[in-house]
Amino acid sequence: MTPSRPKTPVSSDLRLARWLAMVLGVLLLTTVLVVQSAQAQTLSPKIARDLQSVLTATTTPKINWAKDVNGVRYVKVLIVSGSDDAELTALRSAVMSAGGSIYYRYSSVLALAAMLPASKVATIASRTDVQSISPNRLMTRSASTIEAVTGTAAVRTTGTTNYNGITGVTGKGIGIAVLDSGISWQHAEFLDDGGASRVRESISFTKAGDAVRAGVTDWKAGIDVSGVLYPGSPTMTTYLGILQNGFAPKADRYGHGSHVAAVAAGRGAYQAVDTTGIAPNANLFDVRVLDDNGYGQLSDVLAGIDWVIYYGKFKNIRIINLSLGADSTESYQTDPLARAVRSAVAQGIVVVVAGGNFGLNAAGKQAYGTISSPGHEPSVITVGALNMKGTTSRTDDVVANFSSRGPTRGSLVDANGVRQYDNLLKPDLVAPGNKIISALGEDTVAAGGAWNVLATRYAALAQVSGVSQAQDKALMQLSGTSVAAPVVSGAVALMLEANNGLTPGLVKAILQYTAQTLPNANLVQQGAGALNIDGAVRLAGAIRNDMAQRIAAGGTIAAGESLLWWSGATLPAPTSVINGQAVPWGRLVFVGGNRVVTGEALFKQWQPAFDPRLLWARGSVKKMTVRYWPNTNNVYPMAVLSSPAANTALLTPGVVTLGELAGTSSMVGKTGVFLPSATLSSWLSSGKTLSQGLVLSEGLVLSEGLVLSEGLVLSEGLVLSEGLVLSEGLVLSEGLVLSEAGTTNPTNKREANVTGEP
Question: Is residue 59 located within the same domain as residue 206?
Answer without folding.
Answer: no
